[in-house]
Amino acid sequence: MDRRAAAVIMAAGKSTRMKSALPKAAHPICGKPMTRHVIDACRQSGISEVIVVVGHEADKVKSALGEDVLYASQTQQLGTGHACRQALPHVPESTDVVLVLPGDAPLITAAAITRLLDTHASENNAATLLTAEMDDPAQYGRVVRGPGGSVIRIVEARDADEKTLAINEINTSIYCFDRGVLERDLAKLTTDNAQGEYYLTDVIELIRESGGRVGAVVAEDAADTMGINNRMELARANSIMRLRILNELMLSGVTIADPLTTYVDCDVEIGRDTLIQPFTYIEKGTRVGANCVIGPFARLSGVSIPDGTTGVVSNG
Description:
The protein is of the alpha/beta class. Helices cover 26% and strands 28% of the residues. The chain has helices at residues 34-44, 58-65, 80-87, 110-122, 162-165, 179-186, 201-209, 231-251; strands at residues 5-11, 28-29, 32-33, 49-54, 70-73, 97-102, 127-133, 142-145, 151-155, 169-178, 214-218, 255-256, 262-264, 269-270, 275-276, 280-283, 287-288, 293-301, 304-305, 312-314.
């Protein structure tokens, strides 16, 4: 469905907390680069125009993500607002709304993006945030709403008073903007802040000052909006994605004897009535037919297994 929407995905940061020679955007989640998950979710929601903002190790990021997206370059790390500025010239003139997402949120789903776009349209907002509710919001920016449910402002945890810190609705850095409004207010951003950067969150305040409505929709599952900043969060995201893959397979007619010890990558196909025994690894590019028995203690990578095959333990 043509929503006349484009997506801008932020993947230019250095991310020192990963402590890796591999750019964060390229780190795999269940066999697929982290930011590729974000791209695919956008495409599945009906957005065909995707612009990825790259900077640090740009060539490695492009190689990992592929050639089916447009790339904008942010050679200086001057903040999220600056990154959006670099992307806007690549957004088609026919675009009505611009979705902005971080490249380190691989668990975002097409359903969550669709809800955001639908809310933006139905409420006639100038901007709409995807938010999440957390029992322990910790260091995340809090979303302060007005009496009618519109967003008044986003307050960073370090700047929040006790009352604001008690709010459990947080900013996920996933936004939908009217294209014209975003262009107008990005041009107004300044670096008059402690970090000397252009903050995309400042656009929210500018929109309100000009009389525009800023809305928000709460994610049905907070995990959808999870960002990855270190290896512990990377492991958690892998676990969540792995369970999603296994659940989808089981609902399609595949028997997983023990989900806790079974690992299946994205883009793996398994036919109905196939049994996957414990301690099995099935990696990307693998196709398993129907009525098979795989494992236990099997590892398959990039192979095709015919229907009715039993006792498979390896590629050989």
